[in-house]
Each structure stands twice: as structure tokens, then as C-alpha cells.
Amino acid sequence: MTIADRIRNRRIELGLSVDELAERMQKNRATVYRYESSYIKTYSPDVIAALAEVLQTTPAYFYGYDDFSDLSQDEKHLLTVYRGANDQAKSDAIDLLEKHQRKKDSTHTA
Predict the structure, then answer these.
(1) Number of compact structural domains in the chain
(2) Chain centroid, CA 81 distance in Å
(3) Residues 30 and 80 in one domain
(4) What is the pLDDT of residue 102?
(5) Would you say 28 and 18 are in contact if contact means Cβ atoms under 8 Å apart?
(6) Could you list the mean pLDDT of each consecutive 10-residue stretch along the chain, which spans 110 residues?
(7) pLDDT score of 1
(8) Are residues 8 and 46 located together in one domain of the fold?
(9) Which positions ≥6 away from 32 have C-beta within 8 Å?
(10) Which residue among 21, 29, 74, 89 is least enclosed by CB atoms within 10 Å?
């Protein structure tokens, strides 16, 4: 899978149109089409960082170092929501999941 494929797939996963992505990146739609068409062979680190921020992922994802293909749809959704959350919401989510896990573990050992 190419960087262009990952950009397009991630945009679609988030339900964004090309125009919405272009607006959020402060680019024109033709530029986004070029990002998604493999017309561009080398992406600058600044572009990759901006795409990662807007598309709620990491720069590593675009290079294939962050492949979550083995995750279930629920796990992917949870990761997407987590990445879009603020720091407090992320901390609260981790606390809630850890509390649930401790409760689950204590009922299995009792």
C-alpha cells in the first residue's frame, strides 16, 4: 500500500470529503487529489505531519510502520476516537479501561 493509498483510506475511514480535508489542511482540493493519486512521489515531513494531525493518525502510519490491519473494527474505532480526544479525555479513558480490567481480574481470581 502506498502513502497515497493510506491518505485516501484514512480520509474515507474518517468520513471526510476531499474538500473537507483540503479545508482543514488549508490547501486546495487539487493538492489533496495529488496527495491521493500517487502523483507526488516524495512528501515533505511537514506535509506528512499535517496529514497525520488532520487525519488523526501518526506519520509512521503513512510509511507503513504503524499497520493496525490485525485490529478488529471496534479496536480501530476506539483508536480513532482516542487519537481525536484531548489529553484529559485520553487519561479518563485509560483510567476507565484499567478500572474495568482490575475489576474483571479480581472476579476471576476470587
Answers:
(1) 2
(2) 9
(3) no
(4) 86
(5) no
(6) 93 95 96 91 92 92 77 81 88 91 75
(7) 86
(8) yes
(9) 18, 21, 22, 25
(10) 74
| Residue 67, pLDDT score | 65
Q: Is residue 70 helix, strand or coil? A: coil
Longest dimension (CA), the chain: 61
pTM of the model: 0.62
Query: CB 7: neighbour CB atoms within 10 A?
Result: 26
Sort residue 97 into left (φ over 0), alpha (ψ -120 to 50) or beta: alpha
Phi, psi of 26 (to 5 degrees): 60, 45
Transcribe 15-48 into DSSP letters.
T--HHHHHHHHT--HHHHHHHHTT--S---HHHH
Instruction: Check whether residue 58 and residue 81 sit in a common domain.
Output: no
Under DSSP, is residue 56 helix (H, G, I), strand (E, B) or coil?
coil
Say if residue 101 is in the same domain as residue 54.
no
In this structure, is residue 52 part of a structural domain? yes
Residue 68 within a domain: no
